[in-house]
Amino acid sequence: MRKFKKKKHKFENIAQLRVEEMAAEGKCLARHENLVVFISDVAPGDVVDVRVTKKRKNYLEAVPVHFHERSDLRVEPFCEHFNVCGGCKWQHISYDTQLFFKQKQVNDNVERIGKISGHELLPILPSDRVSYYRNKLEFTFSDHAWLTKEQIDSGLDLERRALGFHVPLRFDKIVDIQHCYLQPAPSNEIRLAVRNYALAQNLPFFDLVKQEGFLRNLIIRTANTGDLMVIVQVFQDRMDWLQPLLDHLLQEFPQITSLHYVVNSKGNETFHDLDVVCYHGEPFIHEQMEGLRFRVGPKSFYQTNSEQAYNLYKLTRDFALLNGTENVYDLYTGAGTIANFVARQSAQVVGVEYVASAIEDAKINSQINDITNTHFYAGDMKDVLNDELFARHGRPDVIITDPPRAGMHPDVVAKLLEVKANRIVYVSCNPATQARDLEMLAELYDVVKIQPVDMFPQTYHVESVALLTLR
Fold first, then answer.
1. How far is 174 from 139, CA to CA, in rounded Å?
2. pLDDT in 10s for each residue of the chain, 471 residues
3. In terms of domains, do 217 and 204 share one?
4. Farthest CA pair distance, the chain
5. Which one of 41, 133, 264, 401 is most buried, counting C-beta atoms within 10 A?
6. Is 307 found in the same domain as 264?
7. Are residues 147 and 188 in the same domain?
């Protein structure tokens, strides 16, 4: 029998720290001997003993090992997988408390990083749904499930094949999910049906370390039109295993409108460079927003909270103050969702995006909605946004920018300062990088108002929309 050595911890324990406030990435902050201590899995007001996991010159990182007092901000998490799968880090605090700290996060970043003042900070826009709000989830198969201490101590012979989510910071360990509160029905039912069929038929689950096995990944996409997409990703081209599984899915869930499979023998689960085979139904699903239809394929990006995305886009359009005469540039346009959403209130919309396949989706979304005043270009933003593009379509009156978490490249910010559009609407999924960019844009622009938007309840993530006007 294999013997496990007890792991020795490199750093000391600290007793009875009082947690003071929320910090970045959902961690909380305490202080010890003139050092800041960032602690995971706690709430402001907790008094805890912690184990130090990382030591730096000016701060420590730690995890709780014993609670002396529990914060009044706490609520009982509703998911049995809380604190294991890592997907909903803030289930232990009330939704009102989540909103308060998200609003504070945006304000702190704007003031401390952006050094911006004199703007109006509007109250955060909450999500009507705080559970079952996502339209897409990805689950991973593994033949080596993560076991909790309680499961290990039980001495039971436990099933080690799993279908669920990665344990934080462990690429090779998967939590076997029984019920997930993020995506509406029939998401849980489909996942469990696939898992149970695979166990009954003894289909090999993937070994993430040895890179062997059969079943790799399951993606479920639900749409507000009722469309339903399922993508099964496998490691080997074994139709004798795959076809019966797909047929079983269709028999159990006739509401599936788009069923696909991918054979992926690469070292990772990404499939944007691979063929996706449509086994049944249409090769896409549709989302609907204010009379517009958006086609979503297996590789398409679409905001994962459909209801709140509509509110986000309405807010963006309101901030842009469009009257139908403006030349609008939509940077980081993705599948052109914002571009097409504002096109009917604009003279023209020019969308620019790095991912070529997304631009093709954007063009299709214009076509199916009979929108004729949009133009889309693929390429690196700092290269495409040039004088040739301005000569072809004119300089923008309004710029809408929705960059990835890293924010805008300094060359793009420099180009915006050169172009001098009357208004910039900056949509961000990372208030820290947004604040950094706002500080650079403040050379010529005033930040008029900022609106935080909660797209992802039960997590520390927050969107932020800022309106800038040219001085």
1. 9
2. 344 444 444 568 999 999 999 998 889 999 998 899 999 999 999 999 999 999 998 899 999 999 999 999 999 999 999 988 878 999 999 999 999 999 999 999 999 999 999 999 999 999 999 999 999 999 999 998 888 777 777 878 788 899 999 988 777 889 999 999 999 999 999 999 999 999 999 999 999 889 999 999 999 999 999 999 999 999 999 999 999 999 999 999 999 999 999 999 999 999 999 999 999 999 999 999 999 999 999 999 999 999 999 999 999 999 999 999 999 999 999 999 999 999 999 999 999 999 999 999 999 999 999 999 999 999 999 899 999 999 999 999 999 999 999 999 999 999 999 999 999 999 999 999 999 999 999 999 999 999 999 999 999 999 999 999 999
3. yes
4. 76
5. 401
6. no
7. yes
- Of 418, 462, 422, 461, the closest CA to residue 440 belongs to 418
Say which amino acid occupies 445.
Answer: Y
CA 309 to chain centre: 12
Same domain, yes or no: 124 and 190: no
User: What is the Cα–Cα distance from 370 to 194, expressed in whole angstroms?
Assistant: 39
Task: Report whether 30 contacts 14 (CB < 8 A).
Answer: no
Q: Report residue 233: phi and psi, to 5°.
A: -110, 130
Q: Rounded CA gap, 404 and 429, in Å?
A: 7
What is the C-alpha to C-alpha distance for residues 129 and 126, in angstroms, rounded to an integer?
9
- Cα dihedral across residues 182, 186, 190, 193: positive or negative: positive
396 and 279 part of one domain: no
Q: What is the spatial distance between Cα 5 and Cα 267, in angstroms, rounded to a whole number? A: 30
Q: Give the range of the structural domain holding residue 217, as residue numbers without chain letter.
A: 136-285
Residues catalogued as catalytic:
429
Binding residues: 303, 332, 353, 402
Length of the chain in terms of residues written: 471
Residue 80 lies in a domain: no
Contact present, 162 and 142 (Cβ < 8 Å): yes
Domain of residue 65, CATH code: 2.40.50.140
Give the three-class secondary structure for 340: helix
How far apart, in whole angstroms, are the C-alpha atoms of residue 418 and residue 411?
Answer: 10
Both tokens of 298, joined, read 């297996």
Residue ranges of the binding site for S-adenosyl-L-methionine: 303, 332, 353, 402
Helices (H) and strands (E) in the chain, counts: 11, 23
Instruction: Please identify which residue in the block is written with the tokens 């955060």.
Output: 124
